[in-house]
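Hey, I'm writing a tutorial for new members on how sequence and structure tokens pair up, and I'd like a real worked example in the thread rather than a made-up one. If someone can provide the structure for the chain below, I'll link this post from the tutorial.
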Amino acid sequence: MRYETDSILDLDRCHAWHPYASTVNPLPVHEVVGAEGVRLLLADGRELIDGMASWWCMVHGYNHPTLNRALTSQVDKMAHVMFGGLTHAPAATLCARLARMSPQGLERVFLCDSGSVSVEVAMKMAMQYMAARDCPEKCRFLTVRRGYHGDTFHAMSVCDPVNGMHSLFSGSLPRQFFAPEPAIPFDGQWDDADIEPLAGLLRQHAREICAVILEPVVQGAGGMRFYHPGYLRSLRSLCHEAGVLLIFDEIATGFGRSGRLWAADHAGVSPDIMCVGKALTGGYMTLGATLATEDVARTICSAKPGLFMHGPTFMGNPLACAVALASLDLLEQEPWQPRVLRLEQELKQGLEPCRSLPHVADVRVLGAIGVVELDSPVNMAAIQKQFVDRGVWVRPFGKLVYVMPPYVMSREEVAVLTGAVCEVLRADNGIREAGV
């Protein structure tokens, strides 16, 4: 049955539960009927320039012919087959490709369903690794505040416990160790004192800690902060000395978003375990992966029960793996890095006028990430409408109005996007929470 526009929106209002949204006081939603390049086509005929790349994953834009062909070609052969005891070309080739292009030493690839699940897998790997080394007491994690690692339970336990979006569940989550977030900005002058609080916690609790986990260089949904790569270089040495594993969460930053293929490349260091997702398939299908060193894999599998205890039903889905390979082909064949560096300059230029506004606390840009931080939280319903009225899709959260556009966005489209951000913030027309 085909429903008219109002019917679709009615069905949505009655039955759909949107992410981070209320069913009692729902935010407005817009029906999308098509997408092309960097634009979303709404049912009412309006087009929106997508400044979010659908939560950062559509790096090649929408309806890309190469990715479309990869899906249709694979679906004619095989849509899915279990990965337990079976393999197939898309999955095996993808694992090899990821191992080849990832930071040095990451040789084993565990495919999974999503970014949050890749974090769960990484944390389970670290715990099982220590158990295999007869150190089962080393089962807790050290991280930094203002981080975000996903919405599943162990992932929530390493998100910021006070200011994070999961504070409601703090009483039910495993108790982890938290150091202050890195303070020195990306382009600041490195000082070893910045990592000393974490180093102190690591020395004090090394007998309990199996791994340090954090987002390298860019803290995403926990605050959209960019910190100095020197922090990662010092952290790599500290973890080695303490005998704990180092986990990098590259779900948001992987595949070029920060201006380097991996955010870890800014520091020139490799983790023991790395999580990827989001842009892995160019945004076409949900897929994540957890990469580990041969030492991690061999240690886990050389002790009881002789295998890693995890196995998603849709692990290694052929459709997702096929489109991921096509997305990686595009990254290697097309000039993604010049595009991202161009976006960086255009975002800096376009968002700079916001810096002089009285309610703006900071403006910062790294790679294809542009952030305007306000001095108070936004009113989501009001600010969203004003962006849509200006023909752009921007979805702020808290005090942050940010954009992470597809890499293929043109100079003219970036100008429209950043211009809309500046106009909305300059007007300051009911966009902040009442009473603030």
